[in-house]
Amino acid sequence: MKSEESGQLNRALVDALAGAIAGGISRTVTSPLDVIKIRFQVQLEPTTTWTLLQKEMYRPSKYRGLLQTTKEIFREEEDHLQLSQYWSYLSGGFAGCAATVGSYPFDLLRTILASQGEPKVYPNMRSAFIDTIQKRGFKGLYAGLSPTLVEIIPYAGLQFGSYDTFKRWMILWNKHRNPDFNPAMTAESVSSFQLFLCGLFAGTFAKSVCHPLDVVKKRLQVEGLQRHPKYGARIENSTYKGMYHALKEILIREGFTGLYKGIIPSLIKSAPAGAVTFLAYEHISDFLELILT
């Protein structure tokens, strides 16, 4: 019995370490796309030219597409990337590896720094932290936590559940292709490239379903904070009374597409992030199990 409990404890340790390391790797690799996604999400104006033509209530948008946004950020902020965005990427990496509630203030500050552009209202994380405390109090560090907690359960469930489903399908596919398939070798029958594809599809599916809650979270995170006028309308204090009110207001004022602002860079980020995470998890898990068990 003790041997069995010890084996379960080692297995749990392997899974936890592999998941933490894999999450850190994927967040570091995909952080630049997160910056673009956040710029879209906190912009009240439309993010596509064709939508802008239909909506006369807004002035011309700062960001109007993935390539245009990428060029604009590099053109305006290239000299400052390594200084200012470093803290944003670092906080994002920590947030991805820690518990949601414990790391949430870092995630909020990452959003603030990534959304502001040039000229910067907040030159570093410290200034953003101090201004947030002064304007919102300590609870301001957890603005947008509700949609985050609502999102994380279905997102994690969809991502891991769909990954397991895709992996099982891949095993069946390999079995169909190979008549000499050995049922005892199911785990080893899936190649690294196939695991990468399973993670890619899982990340895409989960993000597509849960993206509107991520938009709401970003709006609540920057609500009431300073923003340079050239980046569009500022989200004033008490614009949204809560998560459901924010969903309703975005839907009414910006249409269904408003709930999916930033979806393209988000998918470009989350799909490879899921692929890298699960591929890294599988290999790191095998390695840790080898040395710890």
UniProtKB/TrEMBL annotation:
GO terms for biological process: organic anion transport; organophosphate ester transport; transmembrane transport. Solcar repeats lie at residues 83-169, 190-287. Gene3D superfamilies: Mitochondrial carrier domain. Keywords: Membrane, Repeat, Transmembrane, Transport. It comes from the Eukaryota. It is a multi-pass membrane protein. Belongs to the mitochondrial carrier (TC 2.A.29) family. This is Mitochondrial thiamine pyrophosphate carrier isoform X2.
